[in-house]
Amino acid sequence: MSLIPVFDGHNDTIQHIGEGKRSFFRRGAKGHVDLPRAQEGGLIGSCFAIFCPDPDEDIAQMAKAGFDLSEKKKHPSPPLEFSYAYNSMVDQLLGLYTIVGNSDGEVAIVRTTDDIRYNMGSDVFSIEIHMEGADAIDDDLDSLEWLYMAGLRSLGIVWSRPNNFGTGVPIKRSGSPDVGPGLTDLGKALVRACNEMGIMIDVSHLNEKGFWDVATTTTKPLVATHSNANALSPAVRNLTDKQLDAVRDSNGLVGINYHCGFLRKDCFSNPAETSLSLIADHLVYIADRNGIDGVALGSDFDGAAMPGDLKDAAGMPRLMDELRSRGFDDDALRKIGYENWLRVFDATWVR
Ligand SMILES: [Zn+2]
Fold first, then answer.
1. Separation of CA 2 and ligand 1 centre (Å)
2. What are the tens digits of pLDDT across the range 25-65?
3. How far is ligand 1, taken at its centre, from the CA of residue 216, in Å?
4. What stretch of H or E contains 46?
5. Residue 242 confidence (pLDDT) above 80
6. Ligand 1 centroid vs 47 CA: distance in angstroms?
């Protein structure tokens, strides 16, 4: 059976690639994505997140102050200092360009859906540049212009921390995503600027008030690149039914996240005892509510704990087999795999 092409809505791979880290071009056993494993799994490309981790000094200081670090992810991370976030963002952007430069033409950064289609037909792997949190964007939004020119095509206003634009939800907590205030005026200005420039806004990680502020501010479809159904797994990172309805009504899209803690009913991150069938459960739930055009894939590869029977990007055909067993035919799988992403890119990348 031929592979279903998959454009993946979210990975955190770039943080793990480079000098002293993994190679993108050699098949590795660690982590989830490199080019050989992506090709084995049918991946034609992915949104690569630029994500600024908590600084080591902050974590060391928390430990010194007696803070239980195992509890850290139950709380939002502290805000980042701008210069730290900016430098971290530039390093990762250069990392993505370095992959392309070292790829002998096998990998390219995409700016249009025509780029993705062209690459697909030429066996070139597509990198879409995503920023997970606007922490590195200045209050005047000047950096947005050059980032757009550098290829930025999607932006999560926040990661799981507050910044000048909005507030994110903690990673490891169950319950309602209604934690903290909505977007700031600057956050709303950022949404409008992204609408005008053709940068897709991502509501994954955003708290509920922020979500509704995006919903009433944006002129484009609502998109959650890597979130699941709160009704099946009550992690605060997952979307409530009301939020899913708003995504549907905006002609938007949800990319299913494979993180065990966002799949399971008990929200425990337990790869050995978590099956990829739960990915299918969330996908079926959202497809039933929002239609087959309203659901796609947003793995969170290299940023989360994958179900043991999926393991990594090379395991994608096993997920497709599971989805076939749930009644999705090849036309439906192609929509879920990549066509739905192309649709919302077309709708949100127009200038
Ligand atoms: Zn994320």
1. 30
2. 999 999 999 999 999 999 999 999 999 998 877 767 767 77
3. 23
4. strand 43-50
5. yes
6. 11
Quick one: which of 212, 322, 209, 210 has its CA closest to 258?
322
Sign of CA dihedral 337, 17, 226, 173: positive
Distance 159 CA to ligand 1 centre (A): 7
Q: Which residues contact 126 (CB under 8 A, 6 or more apart)?
A: 7, 44, 45, 46, 107, 108, 109, 110, 115, 116, 119, 120
The helix/strand/coil state of 126 is strand
Report CA(303)–ligand 1 centroid distance (Å).
7
How far apart CA 300 and CA 65 sit, in angstroms, is: 31
| Bridge partners for 229 per DSSP | 239
C-alpha radius of gyration, the chain, whole number? 19
pTM: 0.95
Q: In this predicted model, what pLDDT tens digit does every residue of 131-178 receive, in sequence order?
A: 999 999 999 999 999 999 999 999 999 999 999 999 999 888 888 899
Q: Tokens standing for 314? A: 């090379």
Average pLDDT of the segment spanning 180-185: 96
pLDDT at 339: 98
Q: How far, in Å, from the CA of 236 to the mean position of ligand 1? A: 13
